[in-house]
Amino acid sequence: LKERQYTNLVQLVLVEHPEGEKVLLDKTGKPQLVGEAVLPVEAISSNEEDILPLLAAKDAKIHLFDDTEVNRNTAVLRFERPLDAQQANLVIKGKNTLWFDYLFGEFIEKFGVSYSDWMKKQAENDPADRMKRILDSDFPLSISIWNNEKWESVDHLMTVGPLASREFVIPIDIRNLNEEDIRIKLHTGFMFW
After folding, report:
1. What is the pTM of this model?
2. Mean pLDDT score of the chain, rounded to an integer?
């Protein structure tokens, strides 16, 4: 890859926690305690492929979100709902693909010497408008939950690059969930994650 990686800050965070719980950071860097992981009982991609075997173990097997028949690739995960649970923590190990990195590089290259001017204009745009365009382009990995007969947005993970997978935790408030099970939808653009 034609890029340089710089480390400009290193910090140590100490989190005391009960034995048997794991500490992961959410997207804002806040530590979250995660207990014993529970696999979904069903995991189906946008092309109706059963991807549950890919999610069954920590290994190098991945789901590429590579359905060519749709613009927005999805994976719907169904979990049994624990009794009296108020919050769930969705743990995702992922990264962006080399394809996405290549695509973005080709896009930037088209600007030539005008790239700096374009970036300045982007910085002047309203941040909410910029974020809406990013979400509409399906760059992030977006997370939704099924509730009251519709998908409700929970959160999204911004791009993290293609070099190394990392674990993310997405806290999900399920106090007002009116469903017997927990259905989570992940969606992104073609082979972006």
Report:
1. 0.86
2. 91
